[in-house]
Each structure stands twice: as C-alpha cells, then as structure tokens.
Amino acid sequence: MLGKKKKRLGFSLVEVLIATFILFITIIGATKLVTYFGIYNKKREILSCLVNAATSGINSCKAGAPISTVNCNGLTIAVTIIGNCNPPLGTCSYITATASYGSENFSLENEVCNFD
C-alpha cells in the first residue's frame, strides 16, 4: 500500500494564484480598452461638431446672418468669422470660419461673391 498515490481533489494554491493573476491581467486589459475607445469616441464627436459648426458659420455668413455659437450634442461650439460676408457688388472675398471647443479648433475657408 505504500506505493499507492492518493487521488488529488481540487486545485493547488499555485494553480489558483496563477489563474487569478491571468484573470486580473485580462480584466485590466479590457478596462483599458474600453476607456481608450470611450475617449476616442468623445474626440471624434467633438471633431464632428467642430466641422458642422464651421460649415454652419460659412453658410450663415453667405446668407447674411453670421452666427457666433452652435449647439451640437449638448456642446456649445464658438464660431468666429473672419472676412467680409457682404463684399461690394461685383466682387468676391474670402472668409474663414473657425469653430472652437475647449482647446480644439477647426477652420474652414470659402469664397463669398456678390454678383446681384
């Protein structure tokens, strides 16, 4: 009977520690990935709002009613128009619309003509 081995029941402490470590590393990686994509999506949303606001600024300038702010997805985007929105008859002028939110900026340039 001395040569018989006892049947093992359950896991050893080392096996449990290794499995816990692997699970811990996996959870940390998943958390970092979710956080990264959350930040990335927020930046994409802000950029999309900046582009829309600058485009709206140029269109409103061409329509003769320049705007100074645009609300987009709960964000208030500041719009600055540089240039002459109403050039003299028979001429054109370049305008630049800059949309700003926090430290993010986006500018568009376009030409406005008056041939009425």
Could you please describe the fold and organization of this structure?
This protein has 116 residues and is α+β, with helices and mostly antiparallel strands. The chain has one domain. 43% of the residues lie in helices and 29% in strands. It has a 4-stranded antiparallel beta sheet, covered by helices on one side. Strand 2 and strand 3 form a beta hairpin. The protein starts with 12 loop residues before the first helix and ends with a strand.
Condensed summary:
With 116 residues, this protein is α+β, with helices and mostly antiparallel strands. The protein has one helix at 13-62, and strands at 69-72, 75-82, 91-101, 104-114.
Defining traits:
about 120 residues; alpha+beta; 4-stranded antiparallel β-sheet; 4 strands; about 45% helix; about 30% strand; rod-shaped
SSE topology sketch:
Elements: H1 13-62, E1 69-72, E2 75-82, E3 91-101, E4 104-114
Antiparallel strand pairs: 1-2, 2-3, 3-4
Strand content: 25-35%
Amino-to-carboxy terminus distance = 111 Å
Q: What is the number of helical segments per DSSP (H or I, 4+ residues)? A: 1
Proportion in helices? 40-55%
Number of strands: 4
What sort of overall outline do the alpha carbons produce when their principal axes are compared? rod-shaped
